[in-house]
Amino acid sequence: MSTYHPLTESEAIQVARSLTNIFESEGELVSREIGDGNLNLVFHVSQPSTGLSLIVKQALPYAKVVGESWPLTLDRARIESEALIIEERFAPGLVPKVYHTDNELALTIMEDLSNHVIMRQGLIEGGFYPKFAEDISDFLARTLFFTSDLGMNQQEKKLLVRSFANPELCKITEDLIFDHPYVDADTNSFDAHLREDANKLWADSELHLEVAILREKFLTHAQALLHGDLHTGSIFITPESTKIIDPEFAYFGPMGFDIGAVLANLLLHYASQEHWSPNATARDERRKYLIQSVREIWVLFESKFRALWDEHGIDRIAKTAGYQDYYLRNLLQDTIGFTGAKMVRRIVGLAHVADIDRIPEPAVRAKAQRLSLEIGTKLIKRNRQSTSIEQLIDIADSASKV
Ligand SMILES: Nc1ncnc2c1ncn2[C@@H]1O[C@H](COP(=O)(O)OP(=O)(O)O)[C@@H](O)[C@H]1O
Ligand SMILES: CSC[C@H]1O[C@H](OP(=O)(O)O)[C@H](O)[C@@H]1O
């Protein structure tokens, strides 16, 4: 079993038995492959007689969404396990518990979170999550602060940067977020009715300059250990609990990339409300809730991050007067720019979001797609002038009123 090969459902039972002591020795185990993401196998292994269960996640040597023609490193399973363990250290209770890691088989065996729902689906079904802004701002503030040069010894951080180099998964992001959506690339995928909008995107040199600047930050700014793919499909949620999964894209990059991923996915959902809300009153209420979540996430994040800095900042130079304000202003601008980039990629790039793709009526879907593109491109273009989260909110609000 120790040589790498993709597991079958019954082999997932064997590894769950032999590599963990979660299950009672008596009692049959049942296994089901439930992976619905773009990249990996995910087995749900349970023991009906005791109600115990766990998840066996295994990387495939290629990107599942495309097939064997797109080889992909198995090392991403090690990165995912190690990132989950670091995230648990700094943001306890906000990620699944890791029971076992096997780098040879590219496995992470972890806590089963099936009592939560994937947030994207929960939002589509009209869920409200009153604890989300508090939880996600905790996760962001604590993981980003304590893995940055502000909160971690700088020599230790450099060693950690080396073990999270993650070049192959970063290359996916570099291509699919910062390159392909802005040219007529083969990987792009969009509805025929968006051809003119795509042409505009490809010809917009002002936009391209801003994307180049954001890309440079993604390539060079090893600010903190990022989750790297923090969309609402990587968040398990209930009204009382939030758990962040799937950090296989983790690497040391610009903090605003993670914060922007969360905001972008709330705004993509916001852009889809004409379909998902049953009437105009519900749509307005839903949009207000989503906008308020965006505002609260930034405001809570900022105040928690500043408090961590004041209490746990590790060196004298970071306490230089004015530096914290300078840092937070740049971080807000990055967040706004990356929010925009993460919206645009989900409309014209390879991988989309169900919030928009599942709108059956083409005219309604087109409106949601154009609204996302409009908000996204404006956020990208205006990021470097921004000084307040209210500017992001104004862009979303005014685009949706047209
Ligand atoms: N810890 C978990 N508990 C329960 N279900 C999980 C867990 N991790 C993943 N899943 C299920 O598997 C799906 C794909 O997982 P994910 O980690 O997003 O895979 P990928 O890396 O391929 O995107 C999730 O949408 C969820 O349904
Ligand atoms: C070829 S990978 C495309 C896309 O898929 C990843 O998301 P997930 O694994 O959560 O489905 C990531 O967002 C990549 O950009």
UniProtKB/TrEMBL annotation:
<comment type="subunit">
    <text>Homodimer.</text>
</comment>
<keyword id="KW-0067">ATP-binding</keyword>
<keyword id="KW-0418">Kinase</keyword>
<feature type="binding site">
    <location>
        <position position="345"/>
    </location>
    <ligand>
        <name>substrate</name>
    </ligand>
</feature>
<keyword id="KW-0808">Transferase</keyword>
<feature type="binding site">
    <location>
        <position position="57"/>
    </location>
    <ligand>
        <name>ATP</name>
    </ligand>
</feature>
<feature type="binding site">
    <location>
        <begin position="246"/>
        <end position="248"/>
    </location>
    <ligand>
        <name>ATP</name>
    </ligand>
</feature>
<keyword id="KW-0028">Amino-acid biosynthesis</keyword>
<comment type="function">
    <text>Catalyzes the phosphorylation of methylthioribose into methylthioribose-1-phosphate.</text>
</comment>
<feature type="domain" description="Aminoglycoside phosphotransferase">
    <location>
        <begin position="32"/>
        <end position="265"/>
    </location>
</feature>
<comment type="pathway">
    <text>Amino-acid biosynthesis; L-methionine biosynthesis via salvage pathway; S-methyl-5-thio-alpha-D-ribose 1-phosphate from S-methyl-5'-thioadenosine (hydrolase route): step 2/2.</text>
</comment>
<dbReference type="InterPro" id="IPR002575">
    <property type="entry name" value="Aminoglycoside_PTrfase"/>
</dbReference>
<dbReference type="InterPro" id="IPR011009">
    <property type="entry name" value="Kinase-like_dom_sf"/>
</dbReference>
<comment type="similarity">
    <text>Belongs to the methylthioribose kinase family.</text>
</comment>
<feature type="binding site">
    <location>
        <position position="229"/>
    </location>
    <ligand>
        <name>substrate</name>
    </ligand>
</feature>
<dbReference type="GO" id="GO:0019509">
    <property type="term" value="P:L-methionine salvage from methylthioadenosine"/>
</dbReference>
<keyword id="KW-0547">Nucleotide-binding</keyword>
<dbReference type="Pfam" id="PF01636">
    <property type="entry name" value="APH"/>
</dbReference>
<dbReference type="GO" id="GO:0046522">
    <property type="term" value="F:S-methyl-5-thioribose kinase activity"/>
</dbReference>
<protein>
    <recommendedName>
        <fullName>Methylthioribose kinase</fullName>
        <ecNumber>2.7.1.100</ecNumber>
    </recommendedName>
</protein>
<keyword id="KW-0486">Methionine biosynthesis</keyword>
<feature type="binding site">
    <location>
        <position position="40"/>
    </location>
    <ligand>
        <name>ATP</name>
    </ligand>
</feature>
<feature type="binding site">
    <location>
        <begin position="111"/>
        <end position="113"/>
    </location>
    <ligand>
        <name>ATP</name>
    </ligand>
</feature>
<dbReference type="InterPro" id="IPR009212">
    <property type="entry name" value="Methylthioribose_kinase"/>
</dbReference>
<dbReference type="GO" id="GO:0005524">
    <property type="term" value="F:ATP binding"/>
</dbReference>
